[in-house]
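Milestone 3.1: sequence recovery, worked example.
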């Protein structure tokens, strides 16, 4: 149902974001199914947020830059790989950079990724040209820097 809705939205010119939100307990014994579904969603997505673990599972490679290149080959316009305290690897397929996080004393990181995505989507939704924001790497850097701060808090 999600993939069908994403396809319809894409056909109607809507901005699509995707966060696979992999949970080992939910996909136990079905990792290949998770990868297949994630790749179908990535193929129609403008903005993809993955953790470093999800990037490795979906791309099949450990190297972050190679993994991000694979997500772009699948169809993602923009990719954000959250790296915890190391920041976020941001890529638009042409430029890439690690956007630093802010130092915090982590008590419980539950919800940090969701806060990051919510903040990034809030910033993207307020962009003047959301459909072409991938071409403005400076703007993407600002968006992810803000999202890193929200995720850290």
């Amino acid at each position: 149902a999600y993939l069908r809705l994403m396809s319809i939205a894409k056909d109607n010119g809507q901005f699509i974001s995707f966060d696979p939100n992999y949970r080992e307990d939910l996909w136990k014994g079905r990792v290949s199914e998770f990868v297949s579904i994630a790749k179908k969603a990535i193929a129609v997505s403008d903005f993809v947020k993955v953790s470093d673990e999800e990037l490795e599972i979906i791309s099949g490679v450990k190297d972050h830059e190679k993994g991000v290149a694979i997500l772009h080959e699948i169809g993602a316009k923009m990719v954000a790989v959250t790296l915890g305290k190391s920041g976020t690897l941001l890529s638009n397929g042409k430029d890439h950079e690690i956007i630093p996080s802010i130092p915090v004393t982590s008590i419980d990181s539950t919800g940090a990724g969701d806060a990051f995505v919510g903040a990034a989507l809030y910033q993207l939704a307020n962009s003047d040209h959301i459909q072409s924001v991938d071409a403005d790497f400076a703007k993407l850097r600002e968006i992810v820097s803000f999202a890193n701060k929200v995720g850290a808090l």
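The chain is about 50% helix and 15% strand. The radius of gyration is 15 Å.
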